[in-house]
Amino acid sequence: MEMIIDFPGGARVDAHFGPYTVKTDQPPMGGGEGSAPTPFAVFLASIGTCAGIYVLGFCRQRGLPTEGIRIIQRMHSNPFSGMVEKIELEIQVPPSFPEKYRPSLVRAAELCAVKKHFERPPQFEITTREMVATPR
């Protein structure tokens, strides 16, 4: 997969891939307009939404309604480094949700591909290269 990252103005940085664009910005105190979430907020949101895809899939496979189900994601940061040290995902279910499936919801959320990449992070290689001029 390839993404094109560009700079549409101000403190905005967008990622383009396939037919999609993920827009990011910085808050006004960070030099932006606050017109979109920060890249780090998008990153953190990918954890909960990924877990949500697996919870949704589990419920759909069993014909269980998803109405009233939600995931609360909490981040706990180190006060000195500012680094996130713990992420909690709490799957809230309505009282009518079958008790026997609650542990399975947790196991489904644990299958999240974003979470798995935290557990076995990829290597990073960052380089620069001069763009080749395209003929007009």
Task: Describe, in plain words, how this protein is organized in 3D.
By secondary structure, this protein is an alpha+beta fold. It has a domain at 37-119: K homology (KH) domain (GMP Synthetase, Chain A, domain 3, 2-Layer Sandwich). Helix content is 29%, strand content 25%. The chain contains three helices and five strands. It has helices at residues 39-62, 102-109, 113-119; strands at 4-9, 12-17, 20-24, 70-77, 84-92. The strands form two sheets. The chain has a three-stranded antiparallel sheet with strand order 1-2-3, with no helix packed on it. Strands 4-5 form a two-stranded antiparallel ribbon. The radius of gyration is 19 Å and the shape is elongated. The model has no long low-confidence stretch (mean pLDDT 95).
Based on the model shown, name its key terms.
single chain, 136 residues, alpha+beta, GMP Synthetase, Chain A, domain 3, three-stranded antiparallel β-sheet, two-stranded antiparallel sheet, 3 helices, 29% helix, 25% strand
Give a short summary of the structure.
It contains three helices and five strands, in the order βββαββαα.
Strand element count: 5
Structural class: alpha+beta
What is the helix tally? 3
Sequence stretches where pLDDT stays below 50 over 5 or more residues: none
- State Rg: 19 Å
* The first-level CATH class name of the domain at 37-119: Alpha Beta
By CATH, the superfamily of the domain at 37-119 comes out as K homology (KH) domain
Write the layout of secondary structure elements.
Layout: E1 4-9, E2 12-17, E3 20-24, H1 39-62, E4 70-77, E5 84-92, H2 102-109, H3 113-119
Antiparallel strand pairs: 1-2, 2-3, 4-5
Helix pairs in contact: 1-2
